[in-house]
Amino acid sequence: MNYEEFISSREGRWEELDQLSSHIKRKGYSSLSRDDLDSFLRLYRQGCADLAYVRTYYPHSRAEEYLNNLVARSHSQFARTRQASSIRIKQFFTTTFPGLFASNAKFVGLAFLVFMATMALTYVGWQVDKQFFAGLSPIPLDILEERASRGSAGPNMNMFVAPIATSSIFANNTQVGIATYGSGILLGLGTIFYLVINGLMMGVVTAFFVEHGLGISLAANILPHGILELTAIFICGGAGLKLGNAVLNPGQLSRSESISTAGKEATQLVAGAIILLIIAGIIEGYFSFVESISNEVKLMFCIIPAGFLWFYLLRHVRIRQ
Fold first, then answer.
1. Residue 181 contacts residue 191 (beta carbons within 8 Å)
2. Cα–Cα distance measured from residue 13 to residue 93, given in angstroms and rounded to the nearest whole number
3. Staple 191 to which of 35, 136, 163, 184, CB 3.0 to 4.6 Å?
4. How far out from the chain centre does Cα 299 lie?
5. How far apart are CA 279 and CA 24, in angstroms?
6. Does the pTM exceed 0.90?
7. Are 191 and 273 in contact (CB under 8 A)?
8. Exposed/middle/buried for 173, CB within 10 Å: 0-12, 13-18, 19+?
């Protein structure tokens, strides 16, 4: 390819990059559509590659001078888009997510009630028919009995297995959260199913350890991470119920528009909940199940996640009401 052919085959995209770069400089990256922003990033990378080619095969040419200026101008705008992206992420977690939690508190609250009602009914049912509810529990009874024989409600975690356990815990909780949310498209019934299963499991575990005189141990092993973990599951459940409500009650919108609108908010709720699951997974792996830490210390620690939850999310519900 000679010099003229090289220029003619690429000058169109150089002009497009120049236009997008000038647009960002005048009006900011937020004025671009998602497709235009993707085009800018793609054209910038191609422009860098073209400059490297020109420097190798056509040094000191007018094309090299032009591309030097173009890439330099575009790079300054590219840096702005990266900085703006970090600002948007910060804004999401400090403002958008707490606001979405508050505006969708009724769905999150309903998920909480489904879970707690199932847990309470299971706890009462355990007193009547232990074998039946033990058979329904996802946790095998022999695992619970092994823990009770050690006088503890949790597995014995040490610092060697904590990193692996934390990753496993986070992966499992994330799968549960996403499944709880995603299954809401089935008229909300899938979400209710997952909430019931989790409530059933928690009811069996609570009834078993209380019966064995390990209620305090259970609270000490569950609450430090469970305050955030269960809240995240309730948020995912609320997102799923919101999705189900959009299917059942589209209002003035078409059903597809209703699902699309609700889905955007619901997905953002789940994204925020993932952060809570990450924090909960770290606490669970490195703190909650470490038997060398006393129950008293674990229970006192609960003030931290409870306080965080109040100031980060719950207080916004009261303000909006």
1. yes
2. 36
3. 184
4. 26
5. 37
6. no
7. no
8. buried
